[in-house]
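User: Predict the structure for this protein chain, please.
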Amino acid sequence: MSDEYYYCVKHKTVEGPEGCAARHRLGPYPTRAAAEHALETVAERNEAWDEADRDD
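Assistant: Here is the predicted structure, written as structure tokens:
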């Protein structure tokens, strides 16, 4: 079992380290569940960064 998981934006699936090229992946994530929610995590972080930029 892998200790790292990635979300492949090309195939819209979770992969281990042996998956697609890095340019197609988000991660690594420590758990499969975290990788499954990668796009949600990205959206939340982007919103937080946008809000921080507005506050500057």
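The longest helix spans residues 38-55.
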